[in-house]
């Protein structure tokens, strides 16, 4: 505890927009690419961990509209303390069903196919777990939502609600997030902590097993709603005017309504990345 | 006749007296007097160089608005003074009694830059 407090004395909260990456000049693109080594672990049976070698960072902010790393939105309010936006973003849940998995080359792409190679006959045996190779393809979905931010000191609270606007799963999610910035010497450190609620429809589409998957009744599973805790810390340090060092580590806890699925064999997903980034 | 001889002497004495008095009036040179900031809400920082003429050997002080910047004794030039301004201000030179001898307005102007927008997502957060 004494050591932790001693470290606290050496860090100074950073003011908003002191880190160039946190803010974008209106009408300008902020484009960067990070090169390094890292991984996002995959909690699914038969799923490959997602390698993180090249990470993009793409953002554009106009007077009100914006694009930020896969999210397209419109800010209705944006002042020093409060912000409100509506947006559309890619539902990254699909990423665990990795499109780099070699099985995707051989499995049919249609979601309702039952003629999938490698599926056991219904009465042969009960599988305690089911590989993502053995189920129907899950589609990418787009979520539309609204988010509000409250900024104070060097912290930020954000609350958002997102719902499927692409008609893929008709599910929704709610996120309550807290973000804190620090400056430690030349390092800019950001802590993100959040609780994410995922609806039963969203959970069931990706992790439920039903008739669409062409498996026996013994494998059927209905996904349930639940809360997922997330914690992520990111540290960056400028090396030159355009190059910077990047380190990021995170943990995502998975809720029982998802981990009880035969498709899932881990109760968490972790992310780790270290490398250098270049800002154009 | 005596009056005629007396008058030139009075004129000369008056001229000498006046020239002495004129040389004693303090003057200063303040450079620059306009500060350019990056944006309307940004703090404008610059170093102001001061040089003086006609200061006596008494104490003098420099004030930026109501804030004391420095005091010194003698008529020497000072090192540049660092200022950080958000709005137009005024430099004042005072004497040992606190009377204002000289004033110089300092103007703040901002560049026409586009405002910064804070990102809604954490950078490098694609995954």
Brief synopsis:
The complex is a heterodimer of chains A (280) and B (127). Chain A has 280 residues and is mainly beta. Chain A contains 4 helices and 14 strands.
Essential attributes:
heterodimer, A: mainly beta, twelve-stranded antiparallel beta barrel, 4 helices, B: about 130 residues, alpha+beta, five-stranded mixed β-sheet, 9 strands, about 20% helix, about 45% strand
Plain-language structure description:
The complex is a heterodimer of chains A (280) and B (127). With 280 residues, chain A is mostly beta strands. Chain A has helices at 2-10, 103-106, 200-207, 256-259; strands at residues 23-25, 29-40, 50-51, 54-61, 65-68, 71-78, 82-90, 142-152, 155-164, 172-184, 187-198, 226-238, 243-253, 268-279. Chain A has four helices and 14 strands. Chain A has a twelve-stranded antiparallel β-barrel with strand order 2-4-5-6-7-8-9-10-11-12-13-14. By secondary structure, chain B is of the alpha+beta class. The model of chain B has no long low-confidence stretch (mean pLDDT 81). Chain B has a five-stranded mixed beta sheet, with no helix packed on it. Chain B is elongated. Chain B is built from one helix and nine strands. The chains are: A mainly beta (280), B alpha+beta (127). At the A-B interface, strand 1, strand 2, strand 4, strand 6 and strand 7 of A face strand 9 of B. Strand 1 of chain A pairs antiparallel with strand 9 of chain B.
Helix and strand topology:
The complex is a heterodimer of chains A (280) and B (127).
Chain A (H helix, E strand, L loop, with lengths): L1 H9 L12 E3 L3 E12 L9 E2 L2 E8 L3 E4 L2 E8 L3 E9 L12 H4 L35 E11 L2 E10 L7 E13 L2 E12 L1 H8 L18 E13 L4 E11 L2 H4 L8 E12 L1
Antiparallel strand pairs in A: 2-3, 2-4, 2-14, 4-5, 5-6, 6-7, 7-8, 8-9, 9-10, 10-11, 11-12, 12-13, 13-14
Chain B lengths: L1 H23 L2 E5 L2 E4 L6 E10 L5 E6 L2 E7 L7 E5 L3 E6 L5 E11 L5 E3 L9
Parallel strand pairs in B: 2-8
Antiparallel strand pairs in B: 1-3, 3-6, 4-5, 4-7, 7-8
